[in-house]
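May I ask for a protein sequence together with how it folds?
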Amino acid sequence: MIKYRISKYNPKFRDDDGVYLKNEWTSMSDIGKTFDGKVFVKQEYEYVEKNYLNFFVQLCSIYKVDKINIRKIEIYDADYLMKDIVSLPILYNSIKLKNKKICNVTISQATKFLQYCLREKCWGEIVVGSLCLDIGYEYYLNISSRFEIMSIEDLANKNSLYVENV
């Protein structure tokens, strides 16, 4: 299995042990906090979040998929999700019935789910063809694949993101 880690973190700021040396935000909950003398604002968060979501949509486009599966769903903030259930009604069964798997969702629905994961409201594995994606701690998008993804570096760079093999 080939594993990639997609992130906003530039690998040139890692030491020899892979530790990231810059003090940067890692979560939506960091909005309002100061990093390297600059207050982290919602607009900056939304810009980076949009890059991740665009990357995902473009990856789906490369694989020419129109249906996606989501599995191993964990709900962290049901109240937040229920307030926005109109945006992603497929989550209703996961919240109310404790269903851990949703099959055959659209790219748009999977993108909304990914956004909720980035915002730490839920978690799950998104299965796109032979790829499995999930959001890890500190705003990492983890991708596992049986095959090398040839255009992944270009796709990440196009969205101001970085790729690391893990």
The two ends are 11 Å apart (CA to CA). The CA atoms of residues 73 and 98 lie 9 Å apart. The chain has a mean pLDDT of 91.
